[in-house]
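Quick start: load a record and inspect it. Here is Nuclear pore complex protein Nup133:
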Amino acid sequence: MFSPRTAPGSGRRQQGRTTGRKSVSSSLLFSPRRTPLSSRSTPTRVQSHAAAEWINYDVQTFGSSLPVKVMEALTMADADDQISVKVNESGWAWMVCGERLIIWKICQTAVAKLSVCKELQLPSSEYNYTADLVAVTSNAPLETAAVQSISVLAVAAEGTARLWPSLAQEGNYTETDVDLGDLCNFVVAVRGGSFVLSSVRSRLLRASVDSSGKLQYRALLQGQGMLSGIGRRVSSLFGILSPPANDTLHSVLWIGGASCLYTLTSSSLSKWEVDDNYEHQIFSWDAQRALTESIADAIWEMLSVCFALHHWWKSISQDELSWSLCCMFSRAGLVVLAAAWHPSDTPCLAYFCLVTLQDNGAAISDQFIVEVTKYNPPFLSEEALQSTRLVLPRSPGSTAFLYNEEMVFACSTGTSRGGLPDEKISFNSSGDGVRGGGSCANLPVFFSQNSGLVAVVARESASILPETMEDSLCSSLVAGPEVSAMETPTRSDPVAQEDKTKLLKAAFLQFCRNDLVGAQTVTDELFPTDGDGEEGAELDGVVTRINLDLVDDYPASDPRWAESVPDESAGFPLTSLIILHQLEDKMKAHGCFMDFLLQVGLLDRLGQVTVRSTPIATRLMLCEHAEKLQAAMVLKNHHTKHPELVNRAIGIALQRNNTAVPPSLTAADVFFREVSQISSVFDCLLEEEERSLKDNPVDSVQWAEVVLTVNTIIKDILQAAGQYRETKSSMYRASENASTEPEYIPWTASGGVSGVRTVISRQHEIILRSVYPHADSELRSALCEQLVALLDIYLSGYVAQLTSLQQQRPPGAQQERYNSLEMEYSQRRSELLAPLLDLGQYQWVAALAEKYCDFDILVQMCEQTDNQNRLQHYMAKFADQNFADFLFRWYMEKGKRGKLLSQPAAQHQQLASFLQSHQHLSWLHHIHVHDYRSAHRTLYSQANMETRYFVKKKTLLALSKLTVLASDLPEDELNKKVDDIVEQERFLLHQETLPRQLLEEKQQNPDTMPLLSAYNLIQVKTHPHTHIQTHAHKYPMFAQRRANEYDFKKALDLLEYIDEEDEVDTDSLKCEIFGKALKRDDWSSGDGTDDPLEAAKDSTFVKILLKLIQEGVPLQTYLPDVKELLDLDELSSLKSKPYFEFVLRANYEHYLQAQM
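Running the structure step on this input writes:
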């Protein structure tokens, strides 16, 4: 800490120093990456702590005795002198006492053969010095560097920097005033013999020695390097955030092996890449936003298991959560120490948490581990919390040591499944205190005022298992084989599965007693890595059996299992306390077992087992056991609050399973022992609930309370299980090369008679049918809130199943099963939410429908409430899931085309895209937005595709012509399109002008008559009493009874509309039309005249010829050959009349000549 003082003296610190100014140092402690020493020190027990009753740790002296100068400084120090010590991983240590700086090399033997110790004089300062303001560097590795090659830099808080180029020359130094703009709080040695200086307000300077031996410095600019100069908004895209104006720098950490510098402020964690001459920022991670919610959730989870209160932690906001940070580096990653508290907590405690982060190189991973330690002192002030620091040996990196002046607290980081229990080691005896620390020789080393350098080491004989579980596990092995590395069966000796279970249990015990080598030897013999598939299945069975034995373990150390006790209803609080502790011990044992499987290499070899007649991945089965332990703890808390209800449910569960209760035990003892059957209580709670609803009158208090209580119990149990599954997912994650796993059905989503899904569905029905109709508004609101929480759990189970199927390899391997389950999920989701929608519980319906993307329910809700703004909100929120397309389809199916086409301008583009597959409506949208070109294209395309109805085609062509006329097309293009439409309308005119009498005779409605092709129209006009076939379908219609020259001329005109696709020979058809025309007249005689032209002038044939001539049709090429006409079968009756051929040839000749 920095605190102002009076004017400095020449030697010893003056007394009467004031401490009125607030400390400007931070609770965050970064230390460089730890490199183990070539020789490990041999600590001996500290005499002053020999009588301490620590269970799992010893405090032992570290290295040789302290140098004389250090002892002298401690002896001469005033009572109010601030002493600060730092232990460096390289084996160097330095102590600041007043303005004296003493640097020494820690000797790794009990007796110092050659000690190096130097005392340096610090520049005067108005603030207290700390060891954080001193850094030591060398061009050679510090572990082996010669004294003369070591440089030292010390900086006063005000910025006065004193550099000793060589530690061998204490009196040779240079002094420079460094402008940090604020008080200096850290000095760190980095690459190239340079240093990084930092200020409280996050300003960083790079300092180095020039050729003349003077200290030169420059600023490290935010985002310097390839991203320098870009703005805050753009730089945030690359993970670099500009620091807030009031940001406080808490820690600086140098990782020499990776040449990376980390800076931690009150809002962010930044990473810098540092070379000999340059540096640039890699990222700036928003630590406050990312960690606040996770830390609050972890604290809430811990409190919800142990206590009935503190539920505000679950929904706390970032602004409401106060926290302090500190960080170290280990093999497991960056470990952040956070101290969080809440003013509403009574008493107000500070919860210290350890968060392990993974640096992926360019960013911090979204996956991190939050471990709430058991160190939660009363919250006094932020300054008091800042005195707690962190030491973290690099390997194994799973045990952290929190320390302040009065104590060292050993705890787990949560990165390992097992570990020794948390333990507090006090240094508060008279005159004693912890003045600093660090990691050296891979041990946590602290400087004790009374004992000097001490190391906190785990006792070799200490087991990481809780004592009760250790005793129980040993008892289960009494009848089993003695296990040692020499006595394990060889691979050629067959071992029964029961013996393998006992042998693996024994290996587990060896692991818990820190005999990893022995445990590894046993497991390698039992389950060799080159074993066959049958052995793999056996491994799954043995592992599952052992873990099940742990969670269902009999509490051997509990005397109540051997001696009778009074009935629990007598009110002994010890009963529930013991049960809860038993469950906590089982959870610790499960964590140890998971760590054992990981360390001996069995975890990644696990496959699958069969449970509830369904295969499940073994690792997920192990997770299920832990989830049930978590659920049992929550149920035990409710058992304490609602003993009568829970005891009755427990009694029903035990009775159903035919489980007897010994006289010395209570039903709760027996039930909570078999944790794996914890879910059996749900159905029993519902049975008790239905009995209470039936026995109590509707207007009684008990009638409603039992439903609310049962809802709360089931909800809290299932939520605790789900919370564990989510927060501990990394413990049970499959390896990258794992084989395909079966579909995952969580036990919280089990079906069957007493399955969780069945229970929630049944409770859904009880609430809405039996309770809700009789409840007042307040009770209805509470019931709906609880019901929605239960439905949330119900639906999340389906999501877990579907996700597991999506992850099958190869992709789509279970597509049929996935589709079936998705359909079932959608159906059940609708069935559960629809009743709430009918009851008008829109707030709760929206919450679930939004979370689980039930678009149908969301649209129905918006339609019922006529809330178009919410619909637009959903279109934006679910844009990537095509909510707009769903809405448009919904409008189509419900016939609400007016609403479909009246979308606001923001949705026009999406609507146009949707209507591309619905062209019969898209043109209306185009007209609405004045896009007449697109409307014309759509209408014209629709008209060309219409082959069924005459009136529809005619209308589409007319609309197409109107829209093209209204468009802004160039005149030439517009005229061309209009001409094309007019030509088609001319063709339609042939059908439109069919005699109404003909249509009426054939019962044809002009508005619904079919569209006739050119060929069909020719048939209508020329073939009497024949059937007609349309392109789209066959439709019987008799042709006109008596066709005249106009009909035949129209038939000839229609020939040009016959397409090649019709596969009709137009020349033959033309010949046939003329043949029909010839048959309309009687050619038997010339009516007394010999002039063939006069004789034929009134014939239909001649009248057709005259019309053709009138229209300028060249008869020479148009008319069929006379011989072709005479060869027609239809004219066979006329060919027998010589006069007919004479007249025909004469008229042919005349009219052809006349046109030439």
